[in-house]
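Researcher: Quick one. two chains, 644 residues in total.
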Amino acid sequence: MKGDWEKVWEEARERPVALVDCRQEIPCNPCEEACRKGAIRVGEDLCSAPVYDPGRCDGCGRCVALCPGMAIFLLDRRGGDGQAEVTVPWEMCGEIVEGERIWAVDGKGKVLTEGKVVKIKWMGGRWPTRLVTIRIPEERALKVRGVRFRENSVGSSEEVDQEYDLPEDYPVCRCEDVSREEVLKFLKMGLRSLTALRRSSRVGLGYCQGIYCQEQLRKELGMVTRRSEEETGMFKVRPPVRPVKLGRLGGVNG
Amino acid sequence: MAEIMSSEVVVIGGGVIGAATAYYLCREGAEVMIVEADDLASGASGACDGFLSLQTKALGAHLRLAMESAKLFPSLVEDLEVDIEYRPCGGLILATSQEQMKELRARAKALSAEGLEVEVLSASELKKILPEVGKEVKGGSYCPLDAQVNPISLTLGLAHKAQEMGATILRGCRVENIVVTNNRVREIHTSAGSIHSRRVVCAAGIGSNQIGKMIIVDVPVLPQRGQILVTEPQEPVLPHIVAGAEYLGTKGNLQALLPAEEEAMKLGLGFTAEQTKSGNFLLGSTREFVGFDSQTTPEAMNAIARNALRFLPWIKDLDVIRSFAGLRPCSPDGLPILGTVKGVKGFYLATGHSGDGICLAPITGKVLSELVLDGETSLDISPFSLYRFK
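Model:
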């Protein structure tokens, strides 16, 4: 892989280029599908690590947005002034703004250097991810795996509320396909509890039974109604905890 | 200092009955306040299936009430802004023995005599409208006027429309006392303050008994638990609402149609199935008296699943994703309790709908609004008087 990175480093002088740092041989290939240039190949064996050709990369950034492991980044050294622009995926809910000073961190979360956010872009189709481009001294550029806010790493709850920013069409409940906008519409009607929200909007009524959306919904509810989490409550847990075939439940298929 | 409010009419309960009553009252221009202890549709109205079944109603006044109610649904579809997922799909009752077929035949005749169109189908006729049924199924009866609705959307739709017409909805507001002076309701004390009102409709479902106590009237309503399974969504494959003959038996306490097994008897098990607009199957159901416990139980879930597969074996590969239980406001004879109470002017009952609240909500709302505002109703509701039990 290191050999690739040297090539990435060179190519990045001409245009933004993807840096693939995928270390896990897991069954996963969205990067292959993301690349329209055929620069990333996983091949028949879904578990193999991607084979990447930086020469074919046009720096579109789709793979950065689509890699579920957040293991792909963009490197751009066109400035030639000893500074590099690195693009990382950002899937946190805090508000990040262009021009902001921010920490660049490595794969272990350790701060490498301070950088400046130069661009923020939503990308990735149906469930988009923010791509955050930062400008940092180029000698650190290959090591950057993420960014972190500079001040108050643990904010008070009110500050967290204010930083909270998801797009309106964000699918809060993916099972029942309910967007954040719809949820907010129902919340404005004066609902008080999570179960009331579920009854009205169908959030949490799908296959996952609210396992994935509950936290997000409690947060939305708390923000709109200004009620505490104890007051808004949780989804009532009803069996079965995991989906079970009707035949099995009825004792027909063993 | 608690705020003092006032309203021409106060409706206690934000379930489907309270919402429908408020809706029809508002349509007549009344000033209405809904007082709901929890949230809209948080009780039985939010934990039931969407059967609008006419052929399962008791013969006589109950059936007539249901038939009048059925006529009102299309107007609600027009008027409410919410999609209530109303589908005039027709309903089937399936028989698993020749004895049950005989009963269904007799019932179909009696229902037809009262003006409800019901067709008895042999096993081969049944195949034409519901291709795959279990081997035990011997035939059934089909009522084209049976329909389906989303009970939660219906409740919310009615309440929101009422609100739009000027009704106030107080959520999380518990009624603590009702003040009666000179034999007339004057004031309602709630957790959100006092409300001056001379007319109160009790649509509190299983809470009606407690409300009745505040004016020293015994409202004989007991919670009856009904459990239901929910499957993953599917393409539309079930064209009608479907019930088993035992459902009729446990519902109407009809001796000839009660389930044979002891366990099923104990659970009050009766097969029901519908496919909702979102594609999920709702499979029911039970009728149990277990106090205010609204948990689902593994025994009942197993029994419902097993029973459902007797009728519709092809759904065995569907994933069950959830179960739920609702507490139906059950009256001693299973029929609603509608009307005034003796000695307390301005107090009206609209409760005890047992398992029929969704179906009977529109007509209940309509007659209650007539009763509250004009003192008389377009339909004779004397068979539903509280005093029939004495």
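Chain A touches chain B through 28 residues (CB under 8 Å).
Researcher: Thanks, that's what I needed.
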